[in-house]
């Protein structure tokens, strides 16, 4: 009888790579990639792994976004942000390994429970305030704050995620390009009058309102009507809301940028004395010692289970078959033609996307790195993004893959969440059932989904 060759041991002293992680299951899909839960084999620590196919990124002109997001995340580390820990690549994909948030995003929970209480929103608002103050102090604008990009950890604390369209900005300067998701854009972004970090506070106000009321504050029959409402329609506050809540919200949802509530490291403790937030202790807040009023179910993966088998059955290049695929020595004529067309682009990406391991970095920079990617370094076959004020920006056409014109813009539900089971590699570590067993929504919830 022939003997079965054993697998060679994994070299954990080498640069971090795909083999260092065990795939558990897919949990999400974003504008430029997919997300799965992984276990780092040597430390037995769980993370979320976002992977983006290089060829698809080139087709969607998203390479610039990927490099932009990575540079920004490398410069950040905060208790209320989804932090980057590793970045690497292989022949097919670019990988980000980040904090795992098992609680799901606020869109998911709002669609199942309806409007949130003021007590619940109060803590979320304060925690997101601390995250925004942190990134703004480092001259970064997020530009895409919405319930989908606010993730909850398993204890119920919220974290700001997805810096795909974030930008660095020089002090005292303005940006002019539209970027983000239209229902959450500040008026000054929509009318291209120039904006800075204050635009993020407007977006936070829109999120608060939407989650408190169960519907978006600006609802038009068409995209044009909605955009017009954002810039001029009166904002109606329910009489059932408390005066402190309305006062705080109206400070954020102020169209006049000079009058809008803008929170900085210099005034954040004073803002926390506002009647809406006054019950929160500052020290307990920053140390994550305040107890959330809602804690997600620890026996479930809190994401949509509708497309459980999508990647395994429909994905052209499923991640769990990567090893076999990369070991292929022959290519079809179609694959060869595609490689010849974009081969130079792929080579440049391979050279520029170096390995990142936060554990080997001495310190996190206090100031955000320059996030421009030089056109001579990384380009795509598609038309290049527009530029303004010397900063990399993105045109409306470029943003269309991140925000839709008529359907998703009005619906506000831009990213569908996917779940699948994926684990074939035996491992003695016992993992929570929710990480390796598919979750099935039995449809028992009777609450109305949030309306956007």
3D architecture notes:
It is globular and about 75 Å long. The chain has helices at residues 54-59, 63-74, 106-113, 118-137, 187-190, 198-213, 223-232, 243-252, 268-271, 282-286, 310-314, 322-326, 333-352, 396-399, 407-411, 433-436; strands at residues 21-29, 34-40, 45-53, 84-89, 93-98, 104-105, 140-141, 150-152, 158-160, 167-168, 356-357, 387-388, 391-392. The strands form four sheets. The chain has a six-stranded antiparallel β-sheet with strand order 1-2-3-5-4-11. A three-stranded antiparallel β-sheet has the order 6-8-9. The termini are far apart. The protein folds into two domains: 18-102 and 302-388 and 412-431, Phosphorylase Kinase, domain 1, CATH 3.30.200.20; 105-286, Transferase(Phosphotransferase) domain 1 (Transferase(Phosphotransferase), domain 1, Orthogonal Bundle). A hairpin with a 3-residue loop joins β4 (84-89) and β5 (93-98). It has 16 helices and 13 strands. With 452 residues, the protein is an alpha+beta fold. Residues 367-452 have low confidence and may be disordered. The chain is 31% helix and 12% strand. The longest helix has 20 residues, at 118-137. Residues 396-418 have a biased composition (Basic and acidic residues). Belongs to the protein kinase superfamily. ATP binds at residue 50.
**Overall geometric form:** globular
Classify the beta-strand content into a percent band: 5-15%
Number of domains: 2
| Stretches with pLDDT under 50, minimum 5 residues | 367-452
Biggest β-sheet: strands ordered side by side in the sheet: 1-2-3-5-4-11
Radius of gyration, in Å, reads 22 Å
The CATH fourth-level homologous superfamily of the largest domain? Phosphorylase Kinase, domain 1
Strand count? 13
Give the structural class.
alpha+beta
Specify the biggest β-sheet: 6 strands, antiparallel
Output mean pLDDT: 79
The succession of helices and strands, N to C, reads EEEHHEEEHHEEEEHHHHHHHHHEEEHHH
Helix content: 25-40%
Q: Look up the CATH topology of the largest domain.
A: Phosphorylase Kinase, domain 1
CATH architecture of the largest domain: 2-Layer Sandwich
Number of helix segments?
16
Keywords: ATP-binding, Kinase, Nucleotide-binding, Serine/threonine-protein kinase, Transferase
Protein name: AGC/YANK protein kinase
Biased composition (Polar residues): 443-452
Family: Belongs to the protein kinase superfamily.
